[in-house]
Amino acid sequence: MKTGPSPITSNSVAKAAGVSQSTVSLVMSGKSAGRVSDNTRDHVMAVADKLGYRPNATARMLRTGVLNILALAVPNVKQPFFGEIFVAAEKAARQADHAVVLIDTQNDPKWVERIIDMVRGRMIAGSIVYASDSDDEPRLAEIADQVLVIEGQNSGSLVDINVESGVDAVVEHLAGLGHTGIGYLSADYPKVTFQRRFDYFRKKLRDLGLEFRNAWHSGATFEIEASTPGAEKLARQREITAIVCDDDLLAAGVYRAARKAGRAIPDNLSVVGFNDIELARVLSPELTTLAIPTERIAQEAVHKLLEKLEDPARASSSYEAELTLKIRFSTARPAKG
Amino acid sequence: MKTGPSPITSNSVAKAAGVSQSTVSLVMSGKSAGRVSDNTRDHVMAVADKLGYRPNATARMLRTGVLNILALAVPNVKQPFFGEIFVAAEKAARQADHAVVLIDTQNDPKWVERIIDMVRGRMIAGSIVYASDSDDEPRLAEIADQVLVIEGQNSGSLVDINVESGVDAVVEHLAGLGHTGIGYLSADYPKVTFQRRFDYFRKKLRDLGLEFRNAWHSGATFEIEASTPGAEKLARQREITAIVCDDDLLAAGVYRAARKAGRAIPDNLSVVGFNDIELARVLSPELTTLAIPTERIAQEAVHKLLEKLEDPARASSSYEAELTLKIRFSTARPAKG
DNA sequence: CTGAAAGCGCTTACAG
DNA sequence: CTGAAAGCGCTTACAG
Q1: Could you tell me which residue ranges the HTH lacI-type domain spans (chains A, B) (predicted)?
Q2: A157-161, A328-332, B78-82, B315-319, range with greatest mean pLDDT
C-alpha cells in the first residue's frame, strides 16, 4: 500500500491559482508568450512554486512523444576511460536537457535486447554504443535509426577514430628510433576496433618493409593480474625491442612483465600505449601513448545522436577523431645488439 | 520533422489480432491468467511478437503511477570504486526490473536540484546517494522518502559502514606491530564519512594511550599527481612510522611520497589504505587495506530503497557493512629508532 | 487573453 | 472469457 500525499498536478495548481489547467500548462511549458497575460503568468508561477509543482514527465512524454532519456552502453564502467566518456556524455546530454542511462555490456549479457526493448517501449529515445562486438551491430539493426556506434563496424559511422593516422604515428616513431622487432599486445576482446588496429599495424609494417612474425603477437585482458602472461610471452623474446599495446592498461601489464623478464624500460624495451588515461602519467617511466580526445568524442556522439533522432534521413556529417602521439619516457632507441 | 513509421500500439496489435485492446493489454502485462483463453492469449502473443510490439513504458507509468527508473548519485564515476558500486547496483536494479540513471555529483553542481526535479517530475522513482557532503542531506530533506544515503549523515541511515570496528582493526594492527607515531592522510573532500573516520581514529588512539599531534594530519585529493604534497608532508616526518589513509588512491600517493622521501615500504614506513580496490594489489608492495563489501552494499541499497518506496512508513531494518582488514605487505614493525 | 475538450497509450474496474 | 469505457496528467488545436 503506497498512500503518500496526493501529488501536485497542473490541475491542483490551476485550482489553487483560480485559472484553467490549460493556462497552467502553457505557463509551465514556457509557451505562454503572447497567449497569457504577464499578471496571470506571474501568479501561476508563484503558486506553482509555492506548491513545489513539477510537470509530470511521463504524461508530457506520452502526450508529446518526445523522450529525453538516452542510453550509453560501454564495455566496462570500471575502466577510467569509460568513466570519462560517461562524464562527458552526461554533461552534453544534460545541457540538451536529457538524462543518461548507463549500461555496462560486460555486466549484462542481454544488453542488446534490453536496449531494443527500451527503445521500442519508449523508455529511451536512443542509445550510444561504445565499441561494439563484431556481432552486435547486426542485432542492433532493427533500431539502427536510434543508435550511434562509436569505434564500430561501419566505416561510415557517425563518430569514429582515425586508427590509421594514429598507428602511422606510433610505427613511424618506433621505426624512426631504429626498432625493427616490434611486438603487438592485443586486447583480448572481440571488438572490431581492436581488429582494425592490429590489421592496420601489420599493413603499416609491410609498407615500411619491416618484418612481423606471428610469435610477436599476443593477447591479454584488462585485469592487470590476469594479463601478465600474454605480456610476458612478448617481453621474453629478445628480438622484440618495442611493444605496441591496444590500451594503456595492457601497457601496465607490459611494465610488470618487463620487470620479471629483467628488461628495463625504455633502455632495453620500448612500450607504447593507447588512450592516455591518467595511469599513463603515473607509471614509471611515464608512458608514451596515443591520446584520444575523450571529451570531444562523447560530445560529438551525443550531438549527432540527437540530430539523428530528430531526423534519421538527414545524413549528418561524421566526426573522425584524430589521435595524438604523446611521446614520454617509455620509448627510446633499441639497445645495441 | 520526424515522421518515421507509425508506432505499434496495443490498439494496432488488437486490430491485427481481431481482439479488443483490453485483451491485448491483459495478455502483455501477464495478467491474463483465468481471464483470457489460452488460445486467445497465444494468438495475441504471436501477433504482438510478429509486429515487434512493446508496451509504451511512459503510458504504463502514467496510468499505474509506478516508475521503474532509479538514480544513483556518486561523487566521481571515474573512480573504480564507484564503477563497482554502479555495476552492482545496476545489476540488482535490473533484476528488480528497474533501470539506473547515473549522476556524477562532482560533474554536476546542481545535482541535488536535479534529483528533486526528477523525483517530483515523476521521471525517477527515487535515488541512492553515495557519500553526501555535509550540507547535502538537509537539501534532500523534501524528498527524504525517495532517497537512501550510503555513508551519510544520520546514524540511523539504512545502509552504512561500520567505521568504528574498521578503524579499530587498523589501529590495533599498527599498535600491535609497535607503531606509536601514526599519521593520518585525509581525503580532502567535505564528506561526512571522512570526518567520521578521522574523529574516531583520534578517539581510538586516545583510548590506547597513543599520542597524536596535529602535524601528523594532512589532506590530499584523489588526483594522484596533485595529492603528493599532502602525502609528502607526512612521509618526511621521521616520528611518523605508519600512515593511515582515507582511500587506496591516497595510499598510492604515499607510495610516491615515500620514494621521494627515501623511505622504504614497509621497512621504514607502514601504509594502510581504505576500500581495497584493484589498485591495492597492483601496488608494490601490495597494500594492507580495509576492504569494504562493495557489491553487498550496492545490493542492499537498491533493495532497501525499493522497500522504502513501496512503503515509507514501514521502517526497514538497516544494514551496516563490516569492514575487513586485509593484511598484505605494506605494514611491518617500525624500524628500530 | 482564457478555457473547454480531445487525445497520447496504457490499466483496470465494470458489464455482459 | 471478452469488450466498452474511464482516467492517469499532460499538450495543443479550437472556440470564444
Answers
A1: 8-64
A2: A328-332
Same-domain status, A154 and A248: no
B176 CA to centre of own chain: 32
Is A337 in the B-facing interface, judged by CB distances under 8 Å? no
* Structure confidence by residue, pLDDT tens digits, B175-192: 999 999 999 999 999 999
- DSSP letter (8 states) at residue A4: -
- Give the residue from A13, A66, A78, A94 with the most B CB atoms within 10 Å of its CB, the best one to mutate: A78
**Do A243 and A315 sit in the same domain of this protein?**
no
Note whether B175 and B287 are same-domain residues: yes
Neighbouring CB atoms inside 10 A of B26's CB total 20
Question: Which residues, 6+ apart, have CB-to-CB distance to B178 below 8 Å?
Answer: B333, B334
Which candidate from B84, B102, B225 shows the least CB-CB separation from A78?
B84
Question: What is the mean predicted confidence (pLDDT) over B151-170?
Answer: 89
B107/A87 Cβ within 8 A? yes
Q: Looking at the structure, do residues A184 and A153 belong to the same domain, yes or no? A: no
Domain-embedded: residue A336:
no
pLDDT attached to residue B1 = 39
Mean pLDDT of all residues in B20-35: 89
How far does the CA of residue B191 sit from the closest CA of chain A (Å)? 21
Strand order in the sheet with A270-275: A217-220, A182-187, A242-245, A270-275, A288-291, A324-326
Q: Domain range for residue A213?
A: 163-292
* In-domain check, residue A60: no
Interface check for A49 against chain B (CB to CB < 8 A): the answer is no
List of chain A residues whose C-beta atoms are within 8 Å of the C-beta of residue B80: 78, 80
Higher local confidence (pLDDT), B287 or A312: B287
Q: Does B208 touch chain A (CB under 8 A)?
A: no
Q: B121 CB near a chain A CB, below 8 Å? A: yes
- What is the Cβ-side half-sphere exposure of residue B39, based on CA atoms within 13 angstroms? 2
Specify whether A181 is located in the same domain as A251: yes
* Distance C15 C1' – B14 CA (angstroms): 20
Write out residues in chain A with pLDDT < 70, as ranges. Answer: 1-5, 155-156, 315, 337
Q: Are residues A252 and A313 in the same domain?
A: no
Using the Cβ of B113 and the Cβ atoms of chain A, whether some distance falls under 8 Å is answered with no
Distance CA A251, CA A258 (A): 10
Q: Indicate whether A333 belongs to any domain.
A: no
Residues B289 and B311 placed together within one structural domain of the fold:
no
Closest residue (Cα, C1') to D7: B63
Pairwise CA distance, residues A285 & A252, whole Å: 11
C-alpha grid cell for residue B328?
598484505
The string of pLDDT tens digits covering residues B199-242 is 999 999 999 999 999 999 999 998 877 778 999 999 999 999 99
Chain B residues inside the 8 Å CB shell of A61: 58
Residue A61 lies in a domain: no
Judged against a pLDDT cut of 90, whether residue B198 lies above it is answered with yes
Q: Which pLDDT score, from 0 to 100, does residue B317 have?
A: 85
CA of A320 to C1' of D15 (A): 54
Among candidates B57, B94, B118 on the partner chain, residue whose Cβ is nearest the Cβ of A108: B94
The rounded mean pLDDT for chain B is 92
Q: How many domains does chain B have?
A: 3
B65: its cell numbers: 503511477
Establish whether the CB of B10 is closer than 7 Å to any nucleic acid atom in strand C: yes
Element (H, E) at A221: none
Contact between A265 and A310 under an 8 Å Cβ cutoff? The reply is: no
CATH of the domain at A83: 3.40.50.2300
CATH number for the domain harbouring residue B37 = 1.10.260.40
Q: Which pLDDT belongs to residue A3?
A: 46
pLDDT score recorded for residue A216: 98
